[in-house]
């Protein structure tokens, strides 16, 4: 029993340490009116690309209820550097952006949170 509790505590500590080190990138995107279906198809393709990036953890896209042409992406990275240097300066980023950029009404707003 003591070993089980020790292992459980160690796993919880590792999860806590991991969650404190990761970075959340929030991307706010406004797309051209009437392109939602095609944009959502492009999100699926873009997600397959970004998931190959070193330092990538997870990706979730959310559609705004109040504004039909607004989305947010919640992307977790191991660090800001993994996103800004590793991914943004790679060929993967060019491919990722090629799927999404044609739909942008305005440039996306990108912010990082810890």
Biggest sheet: strand arrangement = 2-3-1-4
Please state the average pLDDT score.
88
CATH top level assignment: Alpha Beta
Using the coordinates shown, work out and report the CATH topology. Alpha-Beta Plaits
Strand content: 25-35%
Main β-sheet: number of strands, strand sense, barrel status? 4 strands, antiparallel
Q: What attributes characterize this protein structure?
A:
Alpha-Beta Plaits; 114 residues; 4 strands; globular
Question: What does this entry look like structurally?
Answer:
The structure is a single chain. The protein is built from 4 helices and 4 strands. By secondary structure, the chain is of the alpha+beta class. The chain has a single domain (22-113), classed as Alpha-Beta Plaits (2-Layer Sandwich), CATH 3.30.70.100. Strands 2-3-1-4 form a 4-stranded antiparallel beta sheet. Helix 2 runs antiparallel to helix 4. The radius of gyration is 17 Å and the shape is globular. Mean pLDDT is 88; it is low at 4-8 and 10-19.
């Amino acid at each position: 029993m003591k070993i089980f509790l020790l292992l459980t505590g160690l796993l919880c500590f590792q999860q806590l340490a991991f969650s404190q080190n990761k970075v959340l990138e929030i991307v706010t995107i406004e797309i051209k009116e009437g392109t939602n279906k095609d944009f959502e198809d492009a999100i699926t393709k873009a997600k397959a690309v970004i998931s190959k990036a070193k330092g990538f953890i997870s990706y979730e896209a959310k559609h705004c209820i109040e504004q039909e042409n607004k989305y947010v992406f919640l992307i977790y990275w191991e660090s800001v550097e993994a996103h800004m240097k590793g991914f943004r300066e790679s060929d993967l980023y060019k491919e990722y952006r090629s799927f999404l950029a044609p739909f942008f009404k305005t440039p996306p707003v990108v912010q990082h949170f810890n």
